[in-house]
Here is the input.
Amino acid sequence: MTTLAANCLHAITFALAFGTMIGAGWLVVMDDWLGRGGPAGAMLAFGIGGILLLPVGWVYGKWVERLPDASGEAAYTAQVFPAFFSYATGWIMLLAYFIVCPWEAVAIGKLAAYLYPGLDRYELYSVGGHAVFCRGSRWESA
Here is the structure.
């Protein structure tokens, strides 16, 4: 029976976890960056976030170099864990991608409303008598 070698540095693990938090956190704080810091502050924040994500890209680059397979994380886990874990990883990644899609849709709507402020005038649809616009909703009765 082979054992898993403990050669993953704590810094690499931290970089992966921290990069994941930063990768989703920009959606939450984008309004605050643009409102408080203006364009220069937003560019600085995105630049710093990009620099912090470099170790995550490095880790994935090493994985791709070691295992050039289109299966991504499922192929990586198949190399070190039993087949069930690789199967579960594939399904969890699929579900994670489905969860990310609505967040990205919100981000695209916010970005479009910033670039074209007139989009807030056009009602997209209504839910329960409340109008929903490109940037968000107005909770007044229609």
Notes: Strands lie at 123-127, 130-133, 137-141. The chain has a mean pLDDT of 75.
